[in-house]
Amino acid sequence: MTIDHARWAQYLLDGVDARSEVQAITKQVDELSIDDAYAIQAALLELQLGRGDTLAGAKLGLTSIAKQEQMGVDEPVYGWVLASSVLSDGQASLGELIHPRCEPEIVLNLAEDLSGPGVTADDVLDATASVVGGIEVIDSRYEAFSFTLPDVIADNTSAARVVIGSDGVAPRDADLRTLGCLFEVDGEVTGTATGAALLGSPAECVAMLANHLGKHGQKLEAGWLVMAGAATDARPLAVGTTATASYSHLGSVTVTGVA
Ligand code: OOG
Ligand code: MG
User: Fold this and answer.
1) Which one of 76, 113, 142, 187 has the lowest number of neighbouring Cβ atoms within 10 Å?
2) Whose CA is nearest to atom 5 of ligand 1?
3) pLDDT tens-digit profile of 62-99?
């Protein structure tokens, strides 16, 4: 069966615009390959850029066992971060979203391009200007926040919003493997982790992403932010909910759900 990438991209964008869940693509086609899924993701990005949005960077997802177990998907995924998704004030307007969840993220700000193949974690540290903390608000467009690997890839890995912290460190001023994170939702600790939970190190994750993009003739660019993936499971973000990620070395970042 031939997959119409543009059609499925529009289907997902309609879900974003209508703020309503859509049925998983894999429930409607005989087979959705990983290549087709990334082609739908690329077509979705084209539609969003065509509306005047710009790229702020890229992201990994499902890079920790905690997340893989929560979502029932056992492979990392890659997606795009739109400039419009970056929240400057830590306030996430939930009327614009479907069923948002929040999760802590370690974020690398790139000073230089990184193009695979052959990118190593050391190359990533060399190309990084600073490492900062963040919180991602994910919002799968699929019913019941439930999906298979190709579905979540097509849906730009559930990307929705992100809050980026300001207290960064130079990439070699902290050991990113032992960098700690405490995640609290309305004062309750819901998870703790270190950077090593992310495929050994956040820098390893970013190297994998650069090498993945290299296969598609693409690269990570200087000036972009790159999210390494959540090291703890994601929690629902409701109106009035405040979530705080407190990092060793990176200060703390807060997101609040607002109407
Ligand atoms: C997929 C996106 C995963 C992460 O950090 O693991 C992700 C999802 O869980 O909906 O962004
Ligand atoms: Mg994430």
Assistant:
1) 187
2) 229
3) 999 999 999 999 999 999 999 999 999 999 999 999 99
